[in-house]
Structures
1.
Amino acid sequence: MAVGTATEMGRAQADVMADKQVTVVSVFQTKINTVVQCTVSYALVLVIAALLVQGIARGDFASGNWREAVLAALSIMVAAIPIALPLVIQVSKKIFYMFWHLRVN
């Protein structure tokens, strides 16, 4: 009895996974990745600042209300990263490729 990659399905899956490991990153994707990294970094800075202000300045760490401070920081993190970011990236990619296609042809 054959199992894993010794089977027909296993070899097919191994071939598919080998094809997925080859990636080509365009200039547009690197710029989008830079924007996303900046947005997430900014959100992390806001979370740390909110956690410090809530915990130290308002005294939530000393009074034992650290859960409230962490919850406020996580709320800011969720609000700082837009929900529609994947949609914006997809639309921007379509527009970019449309103009790129017009320029090439």
2.
Amino acid sequence: MISWLSIKVHRSFSAAALTSGFGQVIFPAVLIVSGDAAATVANLLSHDLLVRLSLVAALVAVACHIIWTFLFYELFEKPTAGDDEVLLKIAGLR
């Protein structure tokens, strides 16, 4: 039986992976021109929506990391019977 906690952790990981990839890797790679500040500024000014989406995606990723903190706190706050129980909880099998 999969618990609600493991489902939330999985969804949070998925959301953070997508938003981090777009907000912190792909969008800046498109906008920033290495060694040419003028071209970078021109890209930032001409792609206003892309800059905003990049910032929003990065903020969503940060929010997901904050959610992870609370979810992992709930996951590990109760004492467990042994190491195998912790592994089962992490895998979402308990």
